[in-house]
Amino acid sequence: ADKTVGQGFELDLEAYLTDNLLVTLGSSYNDTEIQDASLAVPGCGGGCTVTDPAVIDPVTGLPNGTFLIDGNSLPQAPKWVHNLTARWSMPVGKGGELYVFTDWAYRSEVSFFLYDSVEFTGKSSVEGGLRIGYNWNQGDYGVAVFGRNITDQTRIVGGIDFNNLTGFLNEPRTVGVEFNARF
């Protein structure tokens, strides 16, 4: 590309709202753009719906299989990313702690490749997790129940475009029990 422009900002905050409640917040804005009026790339090999302008062969007058990507954002570069965590804890006895922790992550819509297409554009995503646990002996031992992707949202997070329409999915809802020991 003749030029690619990127600009944005990040924000990270961490605060104890009470002696027992820690909250963190992260946010970023990322604006990227390919700036090259003549840059063309091949579309997918599996018949996806490319939304960029097709390059027309001057001899046949038909599309030649490449697409102009001037003005597109960089691949895997969402405009917005946010995260939020909260951890509440309460001392229990001598060296024990009961806690609840949650984390949430948001990503705006994202294109997976240099060209834009209907099939290879990831929808915005929100995923959350939850953990409830107890630590004892100054944190040397712990037990917790946890859940990941607790809303069980399914999103495509990547793909293969050279000979088929293959998408990679995020992890499904997961729940479990964990025991840990430090020694």
Provide a descriptive summary of the structure in words:
The structure is a single chain. This protein has 183 residues and is an all-beta fold. A hairpin with a 5-residue loop joins strand 12 (156-160) and strand 13. The strands form four sheets. The chain has a seven-stranded antiparallel sheet with strand order 1-2-6-7-10-11-14, with no helix packed on it. It contains no helices and 14 strands. The protein has one domain. Helix content is 0%, strand content 60%. It is elongated, with a radius of gyration of 23 Å. 11% of the residues are buried. The N and C termini lie far apart (53 Å).
Summarize the model shown.
With 183 residues, this protein is mainly β. Helix content is 0%, strand content 60%.
